[in-house]
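User: Design a sequence. Structure:
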């Protein structure tokens, strides 16, 4: 049997929010065997209570829940968080594309569709946590990235604009750092999905949604972005120098770059 080990050190806490007892038992069982400390909530209200007490490092969140649904749970978790947002991996049914997109817009870091492989879910959780907790080696700390009044500290996983800290999810932060490290280069959504998410394939709308959310937090006018611009038919580009209007980019986003 293949084992999927959690990161070294104290066990990472994962809250599983799932109303199907069989699914919950399977998921928590796989996570426990992989070295995670797990807790379980069977409805939306219980999820909020357990999140406050358990203080998870990551939440596995089903969208279809009794009480309040997963989207509302995600909204309330985001409102309650004063520091860095806890990563959220959403579980969705195949026919819930609109809800999945909305979940990404609310700040979910990843999603997986039902029916799913518990082993794949454990791998995706590990990937999200590694990105959320990644730091450069102490012998070679990563330099703070700057572009005008925007800065990103890869080691501290902190981004600021005009001296005010930005409330970015872990994926939004990873996307910002990647783009700032590669100014002037155009990356397709497929490339970003591979380079930032680590996925060989997946729904490209994941990238579209995260670019839109990032623009809302770093642009003066997200409807006319000047930092993260769209190169139509090619992809996205980070333009640190913004002396003029973003050429060829009349809209913030679309179904295609």
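Assistant: Done.
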């Amino acid at each position: 049997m293949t084992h999927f080990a959690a990161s070294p050190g104290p066990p990472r806490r994962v809250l599983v929010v799932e109303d199907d007892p069989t699914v919950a038992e399977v998921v928590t069982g796989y996570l426990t065997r992989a070295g995670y400390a797990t807790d379980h909530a069977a409805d939306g209200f219980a999820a909020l209570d357990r999140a406050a007490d358990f203080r998870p490092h990551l939440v596995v969140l089903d969208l279809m829940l009794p009480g309040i649904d997963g989207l509302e749970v995600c909204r309330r978790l985001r409102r309650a968080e004063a520091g860095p947002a806890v990563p959220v991996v959403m579980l969705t049914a195949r026919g819930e594309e609109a809800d999945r997109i909305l979940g990404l817009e609310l700040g979910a870091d990843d999603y997986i569709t039902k029916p799913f492989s518990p082993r794949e879910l454990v791998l995706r959780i590990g990937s999200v946590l590694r990105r959320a907790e990644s730091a450069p080696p102490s012998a070679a700390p990563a330099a703070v990235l700057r572009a005008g009044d925007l800065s990103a500290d890869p080691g501290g996983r902190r981004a600021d604009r005009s001296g005010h800290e930005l409330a970015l999810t872990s994926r939004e932060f990873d996307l910002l750092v990647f783009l700032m490290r590669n100014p002037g280069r155009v990356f397709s959504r497929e490339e970003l999905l591979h380079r930032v998410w680590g996925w060989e394939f997946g729904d490209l709308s994941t990238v579209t949604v995260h670019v839109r959310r990032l623009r809302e937090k770093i642009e003066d006018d997200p409807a006319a972005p000047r930092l993260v611009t769209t190169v139509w038919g090619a992809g996205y580009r980070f333009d640190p120098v913004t002396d003029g209007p973003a050429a060829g980019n009349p809209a913030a986003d679309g179904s295609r770059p």
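The first strand starts at residue 13 and ends at 17. The chain has a mean pLDDT of 82.
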